[in-house]
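Z., the sequence and structure:
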Amino acid sequence: MQSDSLTLYKLIILFMLNKVDFPLTNSQLTEFILDKGYTTYFNFQQSIHELIESKMIRQETVRNSSHYHITPTGKETITYFEHKIPPAIIEDAIEFLQNHKYELRNEVKIVADYYPAKKDEYTVECIVKEKDSTLLEIKLNVVSQDQAIAICDNWRENSSYVYSNLMKNLMKNPTTTKEEESN
């Protein structure tokens, strides 16, 4: 019985990852599965772990957040076994993805992370992606971990402002004078 339940949870996860063209985070998948009361957190995590071990999904860690991508093996598996997911669960999953698609996609297209560079220095990497294209990637060196964390925390809110101002300033006509700019 436990094995059949875990199989169902794994199929639900594969189904959801197969329905989107971007990775889903652990918290996004957890929100759906736990809010609907399909299983416990521990069964969900066991299902994720087994899917990773069997190479049906791959995990990418970005700033302490796990992002899951379906693999070709996972796509093939869900194609063969999607019919084993009850129609009501499929409807719930599709509704969840449709109602949250913008939020789900947005959560994974704006990324910020940091790592130690030299002694007492950190490199912060801030990225804006649209589908598979990188629109903007900035690497900054800062002198403290606190600065690195602050930049990462603020990147989501400020990335569009930074991008638009950067584009505006870089696209200026080089012959424009300061006086012309202020008009």
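The chain is about 55% helix and 20% strand. The chain has a mean pLDDT of 84.

Let me know what you think.
H.
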